[in-house]
Amino acid sequence: MGAITCVCDRAIIDEKQVEVIQNEDNSVIAFKDIFDAHYKRVFNFCAYRINNHHDTEDLVSIVFEKVITKYKTYRPQCGTLEAWIITIAKNVVNDYYRKKKTKACIQLDFINEIPASTSGQPEEILINRENKIALMGALNVLSEKERNIVAMKYAAKLKNVDIASIMSISEANVGIILYRSLKKMRRFLEGETT
Hints:
The chain is mostly helical. It has one domain (4-193). It is 65% helix and 6% strand. The chain has eight helices and four strands. The chain has helices at residues 31-50, 53-70, 81-100, 108-113, 122-140, 144-155, 160-167, 171-193, and strands at residues 4-6, 11-13, 20-22, 28-30. The strands form two sheets. A two-stranded antiparallel ribbon has the order 1-2. Strands 3-4 form a two-stranded antiparallel ribbon. Helix 1 (31-50) crosses helix 3 (81-100), helix 2 (53-70) packs across helix 3 (81-100) and helix 5 (122-140) packs across helix 8. The chain is globular, with a radius of gyration of 18 Å. Mean pLDDT is 78; it is low at 1-18 and 103-114.
């Protein structure tokens, strides 16, 4: 796993220093297990929301630093650990935008950094890149709440019940927002192609 480094405040958390973390009920869990189980979902969620690979890495570090420092506040009866961690990630992303004082925007440089399939022909690579740019444009037509829900569903691969818990809305409302968001994105993409 290695060290987790937070560039923002230069805090370094070494796995040897934090082998186990303790909950409020004094149950102990290995941080490495939490990190391994949730890293990919947290990374995907943050990447989906901010579209900047370098900042995403920094934000993921901040998220797991907060997981370590706030683990004592986690209450299993209030929701799954996964939902709790994604809530932290959502708050870290919100803080990121608050600090930048910008609304979510698409940075096309990030899309160009996404490695294309090396097995494809140049035409396929170009088409994939254009599709990614179109997708990012479609995500920009959504409100922040809709983007968060879409990111939780498709990037973090959370269930609707967990998304509902994080967003403090009903599970049915999550489904409706997802349906309307995808419809809005589809209309945008169809408008782009016609």
